[in-house]
Amino acid sequence: MSMQSAQRAWELENAIKLVDSHRDALYAYDEDEQKAVNAAHPWKTNPHHFKNVRISAVALLKMVMHARSGGSLEIMGLMQGKIAGDTFVVTDAFRLPVEGTETKVNASEEAEAYMTQFLIKGREAGKLENAVGWYHSHPGYGCWLSGIDVSTQMLQQSFNDPFLAVVIDPDRTISAGKVEIGAFRTFPKDYKPPNSGGGDGYQTIPLNKIEDFGAHASQYYSLEVSHYKSSLDSYLLEMLWNKYWVSTLSQSPLFTNREYSSKQMLDLSQKIKHAEESLRAQARGGPRGSNKDSQLDKIVRDSNKIAGEDITGLLAGDVKAKLFNGVGAPSAEAPVR
Question: Are 54 and 228 in contact (CB under 8 A)?
Fold first, then answer.
């Protein structure tokens, strides 16, 4: 597979749509228009005002590369762009110098100063886009907002609205071959969503994160994420892809993610153990309900997901071996008779 073919496959896998060259206006920033949008602030009267996020391929790739560079530690960065109706349009992203751990990441005073200077220098250079959100990584445990994330997002929406939170899981991105990403907005403190607890779809949550996930799931909602590219960012995308492609070629998903895979198997065994204990309690005359079936259903889905990711990693390794094993080695000479 050539580098160009791999890039096209990545774009197809992540549903990156080509914006017609005549519509490069997505990158045109009208300061007066954005001031009018901010003055109207319809999101203050409708907590569900924002429904979509459009992220440029360049910004997406920069965020993924940043998330992967953090390994098992969380990273953090900022997104720039504009507002178009009920949509956040993200045109670029940049990393922040923060110290993260395996469970949280917080912006320090140094990061705040860096962010301010970056935006000021950008405006001086003619890059007028505002900061429209922040992104950070959840290595191996999915795209959702923890209690700390909810507090951070609420604070940003109080002082810097309109503002968006994006979460990327680099481990699941490597395993699945598709970017694992989520975009979120928090509700006002006294607001109760009509479908509280309904959820936004199935995803695998590690057992040690389920309590944190469930405790705050009703305080925010997810936005529909789509990706785009245009003639303006094709060159930048190609340059970034050169670096991403080399990194991808030099790594195997199974070896790069072996710690993540081991944690997944351990987490799955713990979930099976919990489900088994629940079934035993039910057999002894405990409360009956559909929750047990739901637990077993999720365990089966988790198992299928892990198996699918491992098969993908094995196939990727096999393809690389067939393509590159023996490349550069001297060809065997015909025997002399």
Answer: yes
CA–CA separation, 333 vs 218, rounded Å?
69
Q: Is the pLDDT of residue 298 over 70?
A: yes
* 237 within 8 A of 8, measured Cβ to Cβ: no
- C-beta separation of 309 from 175 below 8 A: yes
Is 287 exposed, middle or buried, given 0-12, 13-18 or 19+ CB atoms closer than 10 A? exposed
Q: Which two tokens mark 79?
A: 């997104």
Q: List the one residue out of 87, 6, 12 whose CA is nearest residue 57.
A: 12
Q: Which residues pair with 18 in a beta bridge?
A: 229
**Burial, 228: exposed, middle or buried (Cβ in 10 Å; 0-12, 13-18, 19+)?**
buried
3-class state of residue 150 by DSSP:
helix
Of 110, 116, 105, 109, whose CA–CA distance to 76 is shortest? 105
Q: Which residues contact 149 (CB under 8 A, 6 or more apart)?
A: 136, 165, 167
- The DSSP bridge partners found for residue 258 are none
Q: In this structure, what are the phi and psi dihedrals at residue 103, rounded to the nearest 5 degrees?
A: -125, -15
Give the chain's count of helices (H) and strands (E).
Answer: 11, 8
User: Strand ranges (DSSP E) for 197-332?
Assistant: 220-229
Q: What is the pLDDT of residues 80-117, one digit of tens each?
A: 999 999 999 998 898 888 766 655 666 667 777 777 88
At 330, which amino acid appears? Answer: P
DSSP-derived secondary structure for 45-98: T-TT---EEEEEHHHHHHHHHHHHHTTTS--EEEEEEEEETTEEEEEEEEE---
The distance between the two most distant Cα atoms of the chain, rounded to a whole number of Å, is: 90
d(CA 245, CA 4): 10
Whether the Cβ atoms of residue 108 and residue 99 lie closer than 8 Å to each other? yes
Task: Tell me what pLDDT residue 230 has.
Answer: 74
